[in-house]
Amino acid sequence: MKIAVIGGGISGLATAFVTGRRIPGAEIDVFEKNPAPGGTIASYRNDGFLMETGPNGFLSGKPTTLKIVDMLEKQDTLLPADAKAEKRMIVKNGRLVPLPDKPLKFFSSSILSPGGKLRILKEPFVPKKVGDEDETIAEFGKRRLGEQAVTWMLDPMVSGVFAGNVDKLSLASCFPRIHELEMEYGSLIRAMMKLRSKKASPSGRLTSFENGMGQLIEMLAVSGAFTLYTGTGVREVRKAEAGFILDQGHGVYDAVVLAVPAYSLAEMTVSGLEGVAESLVSVPYPPMAVVPFAVKKGFADGFGFLIPSVENRRILGALYSSGIFPNRGTDEYDLVTVMLGGDRHYEVREMDRAQLVDTASEELAGFLKLNRNELENVGIFRWQRSIPQYYSGHYRIVEAVEAAAASVPGLFVTGNAFYGIGINDCTLAAFMTADKVLDFFEKKEGE
Ligand SMILES: Cc1cc2nc3c(=O)[nH]c(=O)nc-3n(C[C@H](O)[C@H](O)[C@H](O)COP(=O)(O)OP(=O)(O)OC[C@H]3O[C@@H](n4cnc5c(N)ncnc54)[C@H](O)[C@@H]3O)c2cc1C
Fold it and tell me: Which residue, among 253, 213, 217, has the nearest Cα to 236 in the 3D structure?
């Protein structure tokens, strides 16, 4: 059994790893275009700081990433967030305001007006959505929780997760669990009460690794479950009589898993996927810039802050990276990471390094009440195409791509363009794809 996985981000590596464990003896090759694997995930050290190019961590409440760490027998590398990182903030009227750490505390916080709070209390009495049209997150939020909850709660949350726009993103595609809760319980508040009484904790604790998220990539890369070819972009996957042939050679493959971004898949020539290229290029990938600063200790405690779009600022927010994971900073300095770009800030694609650092430091200094010369820039990471945006109607793209792949036995598609953008989503999809690959070989053997 010979399997090719195209794309060496977390989706491709995790799929190759789990498939290798599910099908011992399978020969699995992973092809990655870039010189190093990981996609948006990598960790760098500079001057005592440990920085991330992309994700900061994953939540321990969902099991699949942790399951992979267990399978690797590397539980000792896990690093849970510091308890103080519970303290999160948003910006309101230009100032940092603490976010309540428990839902009930919202009612004593200044984030919503009394009218906004009252509107949330009416949520259990709002009828369940009828019809199956795809709602945006803003439409859903206004209907169930009211305008203020969208502006001050959902908008910054969506910005923090997707760098996205609440008026465009699909609730059911981006947050399927919230959609299901409404369908199942008729109300989010009722669902929360019921689930609390069942002691179900859906989110868990933010978790990373001692050496950063890049450590997960390194551990997978050396796991021995597959052979990794870096600097090897695949342009063509052709179905032949005996199996699949790649333009990169390496013989005939019985199965191929495509784990590349939607725009990369659209550029490839893949037997069976010719008709979906247009859908694939329609998935927006806005730019992002990640700009870390060294900040003298004492100014950045907690998790960090997000900025609602109504505040009209030039940054999305900042993560207090060493407030979350203390070993990211030094004895004297905290590491604070400013995020710019996203779906409301395409101008970031055109900005040069100096403009990005200037913008980030000017904004951050204002919020931390420091002078700009008290912030030292210690790196910069740019993504011209960062996180795929699941706009309203995204499910049609996923269905079309799935149907096209299913028409070619042995061809599978995964990745953050389809099954969720979180690391936990990518690893869950890896288990599901590995099951499909196993099923394909079992059926083939039975023929
Ligand atoms: C700034 C930022 C912050 C984030 N923060 C978080 C966070 O805190 N928590 C969280 O859970 N998620 C976060 N995410 C999202 C998460 O990191 C991504 O969704 C996830 O890493 C995507 O993995 P992937 O493998 O699906 O895609 P990618 O990482 O995009 O990997 C795809 C790989 O395919 C390769 N490739 C492309 N074309 C070809 C080809 N033709 N041949 C071979 N290889 C090819 C690419 O080079 C790339 O390595 C963040 C993302 C960004 C950008």
Answer: 253
